[in-house]
Design goal:
Distance between the termini: 64 Å
Number of helices: 25
Structural class: alpha/beta
Oligomer: single chain
CATH topology of the largest domain: TIM Barrel
Helix content: 40-55%
Number of strands: 20
Number of domains: 3
Length: about 650
């Protein structure tokens, strides 16, 4: 077909093993030059006793749920067990157990065995979807759950099951090793380093592990990493992408569905644009048109220095560690409801206040002291980051922020520049430094930025909007322009937040204030890759709060984009929110700000309800579902803080 995506002669490296020949044919069909080097092999474990013991427990009814993670693993499992246990008895026992199959491959193997899965995990088939499927269909509290693992243990899945009360038995079926002949893989390492490869495609996470392993053996690790930053890197899906980023490798292309054919098609369609931007230097060698980890500031990859704040209630809750009571801070905690803030605002405009580090720090320090909250968020705004990108920002009295040169057409995206330096935003970093210096050392400081979608919405609409029609129009009519804009914003946000961390922020919050206007499918396609890129590019060891409002249906996708803490609004109960995002995340929220306009008894009742929903789980940070409203009585805010302190301490003592 003439409109089929085409590599147009690009040189494509793939590390597929079992389907290497099929991968080569696919690349050629899409006009690429394939260099396929098998990168791993599955090796059966030498000790078969754990598998035989498991088979006997399954046959005697001592296993309640069996989670099957891979098709290859199911075949290995049956092949190993049938050497020692009657095959039909084992298959009958599998049929009697509740089986949860992660995606189509284990389902297909079960079908070949004459079995069917009780529950099938939907795409993108990550461990989070496994947990979501179990939450929806399989109560696992006090149940014996066996997890057929592949290659290596998934600690997040096991922790999630244990958090749900399951008695988990990891069932390791095989391990991954390098192929017997590593020559082709070594050649691909050398080709990438020599600049003879344009696209690298990964169909499993461990391919990248073995690629780096071989590079280290050849003493080419730094050169390989640098070269991978200059070419288009394509990943088959979220699980593989997550591992690549953990290995500090950027991901440029990810198909909508985690299938090999769709991966090749997506790479053929997008690789040329990715390479053009990288080679033009607009992405500074570490970004992409669709999903990029922006280049961090020098030193940003270093973990921050420890301090007294690390043992604070807030930081421990971010890490889901036990706390004596629930920590509390409030979005927009320094705002117009405070007479002290109004007095300062009489002296200056909002824009001038944001650009005055002394006053901005003074406002927040005074607020923290008055309220007695457990963390301080810097006093600033979402939008100053847009000015050095070439957008003309003004705060109009009574109208809010206005962008006088909005991005309305695809061609307008070209005038939104890369944020090459944060020097023009140093007033924000100075606010961080002054706020940190003026607070007790045990009070953490939170930096923040707008998420790519929310920043793009302001840039396109020229301000706030009821339906975000201009934003969606650009997004739908020209996805390429949309991804170029969102990618540019994502890279800017990474540099901006890493600079705040370097200036002294102990945690950061990413505000996606307007993303609730989208449905889940649009979020997954147009937003998630860029938000994921931001979070993946931030300084390791610094908690990230990922906050969005307006649409609980997005929570599962929000969590998949990343974040140590997921912030939720009042439109969903905390228990249901945790079910969607997984108990491996902390959660922040979620009192309706309007409750603070009511009487004390109502506030107390609502606080009790939220704490009851949290149910003493580790990792709850009390906050509002959005910012404090200007008309809120100060006395009610003070009462709220005291109630959370009192009631969470009482409740926790009962657990």
């Amino acid at each position: 077909m003439s409109d089929q995506p085409n590599f147009a002669g690009l040189r494509v490296a793939s590390f597929e093993s079992r389907r290497a020949a099929e991968m080569a044919r696919l690349v050629e069909r899409y006009g690429g030059v394939p260099f396929v080097s098998p990168s791993l092999r599955e090796v059966e474990l030498g000790d078969h006793r754990p598998l035989v013991d498991f088979a006997n427990r399954l046959i005697t009814g001592q296993v309640d749920v069996l989670v099957l993670m891979t098709g290859v693993g199911v075949r290995h499992l049956v092949a190993e067990v049938e050497r020692h246990v009657d095959r039909q008895r084992f298959l009958s026992a599998m049929a009697d157990a509740i089986t949860v199959a992660r995606g189509p491959k284990p389902v297909a193997v079960l079908k070949d065995l004459g079995l069917s899965a009780t529950h099938r995990v939907p795409e993108p088939n990550t461990w989070r979807e496994v947990l979501a499927t179990i939450d929806a269909h399989v109560p696992v509290a006090q149940q014996r759950v066996a997890v057929q693992e592949y290659g290596q243990s998934n600690v997040s899945l096991i922790a999630g099951l244990e958090a749900r009360g399951a008695k988990v038995e990891p069932l390791r079926v095989y391990r991954w090793e390098l192929p017997d002949d590593t020559g082709p893989l070594e050649e691909n390492v050398r080709r990438i380093v020599a600049g003879e490869i344009d696209v690298a495609m990964f169909t499993s996470a461990h391919q990248a592990v073995n690629l780096l392993r071989v590079a280290a053996r050849l003493e080419l690790s730094p050169a390989l990493r640098q070269s991978l930053g200059r070419i288009a890197v394509a990943s088959i899906g979220p699980t593989t992408s997550e591992t690549l980023r953990e290995l500090d490798l950027s991901v440029d292309i990810e198909p909508e569905h985690s299938k090999m054919g769709q991966l090749v098609a997506a790479a053929a369609e997008q690789a040329a644009a990715v390479l053009a931007r990288k080679r033009a230097g607009t992405a500074r060698g570490n970004a992409s048109a669709v999903c990029a980890t922006a280049e961090p500031l020098a030193g940003a990859s270093l973990r921050p220095q420890p301090g007294p704040w690390d043992d604070s209630l807030f930081m421990r809750a971010c890490r889901r560690q036990p706390v004596e009571r629930t920590p509390i801070w409030l979005m927009r905690q320094a705002g117009r409801y405070l007479p002290e803030y109004r007095a300062i605002r009489q002296q200056t405009t909002f824009a001038e206040l944001c650009k005055n580090p002394r006053l901005s720090a003074e406002v927040m320090i005074a607020t923290v002291r008055r309220l007695g909250v457990d963390a301080a968020i810097i006093f600033s705004d979402l939008l100053p980051i847009l000015e050095p990108l070439g957008l003309e920002l003004e705060y109009s009295v009574g109208e809010g922020p206005r962008i006088h040169n909005p991005v309305r057409e695809p061609a307008d995206v070209d005038r939104v520049t890369e944020l090459e330096s944060v020097d023009s935003l140093d007033f924000v970093m100075e606010t961080v430094r002054r706020t940190r210096a003026g607070l007790p050392p045990e009070i953490p400081v939170i930096g923040f930025a707008g998420a790519p979608f929310t920043l793009a919405g302001y840039a396109i609409e020229g301000g706030t909007s009821r339906n975000w029609a201009h934003t969606k129009t650009l997004m739908y009519r020209d996805p390429g322009a949309w991804h170029a804009l969102a990618g540019r914003l994502a890279r800017a946000v990474v540099r901006y937040l890493n600079a705040q961390i370097a200036a002294g922020a102990q945690a950061v919050q990413l505000f996606d204030s307007w993303v609730g206007c989208l449905g889940p499918e649009d979020y997954h396609q147009y937003v998630q890759p860029h938000t994921r890129a931001v979070i993946a590019g931030l300084t390791p060891g610094v908690p990230v709060i990922h906050f969005a409002t307006g649409n609980p249906a997005l929570l599962r996708h929000l969590a998949a984009a990343g974040g140590d803490v997921i912030g939720v609004d009042w439109r969903i109960e905390l228990g249901e929110a945790w079910r969607l995002i997984g108990l491996d995340r902390a959660i922040q929220g979620n009192l309706d700000p309007c409750v603070l306009l009511s009487d004390r008894d109502t506030i107390r009742r609502c606080v009790q309800s939220i704490l009851a929903q949290a149910a003493g789980r580790p990792g709850h940070i009390f906050n509002l579902g959005h910012g404090v409203l200007p008309e809120t009585p100060v006395e009610n805010v003070l009462a709220l803080v005291e109630m959370v302190r009192e009631l969470s301490g009482e409740r926790r003592s009962n657990y």
